[in-house]
UniProtKB/TrEMBL annotation, chain B:
All copies of domain Solute-binding protein family, residue ranges: 90-456
Source organism (scientific name): Microbacterium lemovicicum
Keyword Transcription among UniProt keywords: no
Gene Ontology, cellular component aspect: ATP-binding cassette (ABC) transporter complex; periplasmic space
Gene: mppA
Keywords (A to Z) from UniProt: Signal
Protein name (record): Periplasmic murein peptide-binding protein
Gene Ontology MF: a single term: peptide transmembrane transporter activity
């Protein structure tokens, strides 16, 4: 187990380092930041030269990467070209908002996704078909379309929920985040529901379950011990990547509902060629992805060590 | 002038939704959609209001430093020396008088009762410091100060307890009008000296005299800017206690938030949402005069784009009415040339400017005539012409499609290059980025009254300040007349020189003007009192905002 975690951690750091190199160089070649850095002024050749010197734009990419990396290891991720404040203080408060959005969405996904998957696998044909139709629909609807439908129904027609901003204080925040969370959750609920159903069905018709049933073990106990426990690693693994995907997908819901999270910040920073912000946010997204994957693997291993034993040896 | 700033401010290119335009004030242009009533200022509010949330559709500003940025937040924070009125006329502001006392000496006399937010009185030193900000080439307003004596010892000096004198190397007929803009925004010298280059950032903020105050920490980057009423404002206390700016550049999100009441108001809302804004239960959509217009012009000195005959032909092929109906939802008017009428409505020699404008030919569709022009030009039109627009700017992309189909109708093959904001912005200062680009479509507006801004930038040779004169247009008569207009010592001869220049440059279409658009302001039903003309860019438009 220890070897597995250590191996995972090493791989994680290596992935992050490689990602930082790719992101750093990719972002550098995609846009000319001069117009961003000059603000509203008409850049004269002198001003352009000064900006290039101030921001070391003429240094080789490797030099700039090294400086950026060493600063980053000291907790300094640079200053935003647009806001002229340090990136960490810009991202910090917005990350909290996105995290709350993702957690609420995750709650919806686990309750409705796993819940409907269990129902589809265990409650007969009619329920199975109904869930199948609904999940097909859910997977076909893009997040922004769901957002428009929700705004139209629950905000404009019924007037139950606000449509803009992230709100202040716990209850108000929760209230503001319901519609964005639901619009984000729909696609993933459908996805997780299908994964859950498939994993459970595979277990339900397996030999050891049939044996357990024949031995007269109560149905509920068979389901908990033999079916769900064996299906859980697969569901968990998919959930890990799902949550990582949520951080990326949150941009759509944040823009549609005017929420000041990291997703909308990334969209805006990219449009404005605010390179330091784009770099750090991209790196955070990669980090979340690899960390959650690793965590999902470790948890799966804890639930059922045999499921990953082969993987560690390889 | 703002055309450049807009195009260069990378974000502005993408998110400016509806900078709008004008017609003669008292007689709506008969060709525009007749039922649009133009209002430049709503009746002042009468009831105090605790809090108003205002959307900034251009997105979060990079800075609130008036010397470095033009946005709709600064006018409520920092006063200019002269006060721009909703009808684009100029009244005294922090300066009681500001006049040329001889052709090259301009004397500014200040009120003695104006204080900064921190209670310190405004001194002549503060004003001289503020004006000097605009003499820096990095300033947005550098062009307006180009004729000021560059010697700091004699150029802008304090000459009395409440008096500042500006000396010029040549007379400048455009200077006083420019002082009604942010080029004369008054900032505290000691605050600026302590803050250094950080003035106007979220870390440091500002120290100004305006009706709303920005407290330290009031700007939460990426989130909002919170301002509060200045109880000691020299021109009366605002009715709104807290005015919070939120940044919403997504059109549909803004429309929903406004009509649902989550946001109270916004300037420059999208014309495409007109029906929603005018629908049941919505607030008020006010249409005001503007100097804004849509146009496109040559980006090269070679090939068909640099040939006035080809540009005239393209202009003749474009159906302006179709443009107005599709791009600005009817909320605009045909504009004959690059300088819009509203920009000279309030000038002393307005009648002369108007007569000069009226004498210009109105754009009319003439496909056969256009084809003939293309043929007679002798230009090789087999190669496709490239038209650059910023990606994601809905109105400009529709504009490009209209230009493309107009070109096709007269045998000009036009391809559209939708550029990322930073690349599009780079077109304006990096000549190498214009390689392979024939035309650039833009949208711009003039913030202060005056007619010389655009012509100076687009028609003069580069050495005389024509930084956007990419087709290397050089007509000595136009140059002489424009120079004479700038250095004239009386308003009438300035107007006559300008009109003489316009008579020549207008048909040469250094910019093919497509239409002027109006300023669109949306406000919650309970509120009133906003400046709804383009003057909002240069005056505290929320000073009279309040409950009905």
């Amino acid at each position: 187990m220890f070897r597995m975690v250590a191996g995972r951690l090493g791989g994680l750091l290596l992935t992050l380092l490689l990602a930082s190199i790719v992101i750093f160089s990719a972002v550098l070649v995609t846009g000319d930041p001069i117009s961003t850095l000059a603000g509203g002024a008409k850049p004269t050749p002198e001003l352009i030269a000064q900006i290039r010197a101030d921001y070391r734009l003429d240094d080789p990419v490797w030099t700039r990467y090294w400086l950026w990396l060493t600063d980053a290891l000291h907790g300094d991720f640079g200053r935003s070209f647009v806001y002229k404040t340090d990136v960490v203080s810009l991202i910090g408060p917005r990350f909290g908002v996105t995290l709350q959005l993702v957690l609420l969405t995750l709650a919806f996904i686990l309750v409705f996704g796993v819940g409907s998957g269990i129902l589809a696998a265990t409650r007969g044909r009619v329920v199975d078909r109904t869930v199948s139709i609904l999940t097909s629909l859910g997977m076909a609807l893009p997040t922004f379309v769901v957002a428009i439908l929700l705004i139209w129904l629950f905000a404009k027609t019924l007037g139950w929920f606000p449509v803009f901003g992230e709100g202040d204080g716990f209850v108000d925040r929760l209230w503001h985040l319901v519609l964005p969370s639901v619009s984000l959750a729909v696609l993933f609920v459908a996805y997780i529901s299908r994964i859950t159903r498939a994993a459970l069905v595979a277990q339900l018709y397996s030999e050891h379950v049939e044996t357990a049933t024949v031995r007269g073990i109560p149905r509920g106990r068979v389901f908990r011990i033999h079916v769900f426990r064996n299906a859980a690693p697969q569901i968990l693994a998919i959930s890990g990547t799902t949550v990582a995907g949520l951080f990326a997908a949150s941009a759509i819901a944040e823009v549609a509902f005017g929420i000041g999270g990291v997703g909308s910040l990334l969209v805006e920073a990219a449009a404005r060629a605010d390179l330091p912000v784009v770099q750090v946010l991209s790196l955070i997204l990669v980090a979340i992805f690899v960390v959650l994957n690793a965590v999902a693997d470790i948890i799966a291993a804890l639930i059922d060590p045999s499921s990953v034993a082969g993987g560690v040896a390889a | 002038m703002k055309r450049s700033a807009l195009a260069i401010g990378a974000l502005a290119c993408v998110t400016v939704l509806a900078l709008s335009a004008c017609a003669p004030r008292d007689e709506p242009n008969p060709q525009s959609s007749g039922e649009v009533a133009l209002v430049d200022a709503q009746p002042a509010g009468t009831k105090p209001v605790d809090e108003v949330t205002w959307a900034i559709v251009e997105g979060e500003p990079a800075t609130l430093n008036p010397a470095a940025s033009a946005n709709l937040i600064i006018p409520n924070l920092c006063d200019n020396l002269l006060s721009l009125q909703p009808d684009f006329s100029i009244q005294p502001g922090i300066a009681t008088t500001a006049e040329f006392v001889d052709p090259t000496t301009f004397v500014i006399t200040l009120r003695d009762d104006v204080t900064f937010w921190n209670g310190d009185p405004v001194t002549a030193e503060d004003v001289a410091y503020s004006l000097r900000q605009s003499t820096n080439p990095a300033s947005q307003w550098y062009g307006a100060f180009a004729l000021v004596d560059p010697d700091p010892a004699t150029g802008i000096t304090v000459t009395g307890p409440n008096e500042v004198t500006v000396r010029f190397v040549a007379p400048d007929s455009a200077f006083r009008d420019a002082l009604a803009g942010q080029g004369s925004a008054v900032m505290q010298e000691s605050f600026g000296a302590a803050a250094g280059g950080a003035v106007g950032t979220s870390d440091v903020g500002l120290m100004c005299t305006g009706p709303f105050e920005l407290a330290p920490g009031g700007w939460k980057p990426g989130s909002e800017i919170e301002t509060t009423a200045n109880p000691d404002y020299w021109n009366g206390t605002p009715l709104v206690q807290k005015l919070t700016y939120s940044f919403v550049s997504d059109g549909p999100t803004l429309t929903t938030a406004l009509t649902q009441g989550d946001i109270d108001g916004a300037i420059n809302v999208a014309p495409s949402s007109r029906t929603t804004f005018e629908g049941d239960g919505a607030g008020t959509l006010t249409v005001g005069h503007s100097t804004a217009s849509y146009s496109f012009g040559p980006a090269t000195a070679e090939g068909p784009a640099a040939d006035p005959a080809i540009r005239r032909a393209l202009s003749m092929a474009i159906d302006r009415q179709q443009f107005l109906d599709t791009v600005v939802s009817g909320l605009g008017y045909p504009q004959k040339t690059i300088v819009p009428e509203f920009s000279f409505q309030s000038l002393d020699a307005a009648a002369t400017y108007q007569a000069g404008y009226d004498a210009l030919a109105a754009p009319a569709v003439n496909i056969e005539g256009a084809k003939k022009l293309v043929e007679e030009s002798g230009e090789d039109v087999s190669r496709p012409l490239v038209l650059a627009v910023p990606a994601g700017a809905r109105e400009l992309q529709q504009t490009a499609a209209i230009i493309q189909s107009a070109g096709a109708s007269i045998g000009l093959n036009i391809t559209i290059d939708a550029m990322q904001a930073s690349d599009f912005g780079a077109l304006f200062y990096d000549p190498s980025r214009r390689d392979g680009v024939d035309f650039v479509a833009t949208q711009g507006y003039l913030e202060t009254p005056g007619v010389l801004g655009y012509p100076s930038l687009f028609m003069l040779p580069a050495a005389q300040g024509g930084v956007f004169n990419w087709s290397e247009y050089d007509n000595p008569e136009v140059t002489a007349d424009l120079m004479a207009a700038r250095t004239a010592t009386d308003a009438q001869s300035a107007a006559e020189s300008f009109v003489a220049a316009q008579e020549i440059f207008a048909p040469d279409m250094l910019q093919i003007t497509l239409a002027g658009s109006y300023q669109l302001t949306y406000l919650n039903k309970e509120l009133t009192g906003v400046t709804t003309s383009v003057a909002a860019y240069g005056s505290p438009w929320a000073l009279h905002l309040g409950g009905k």
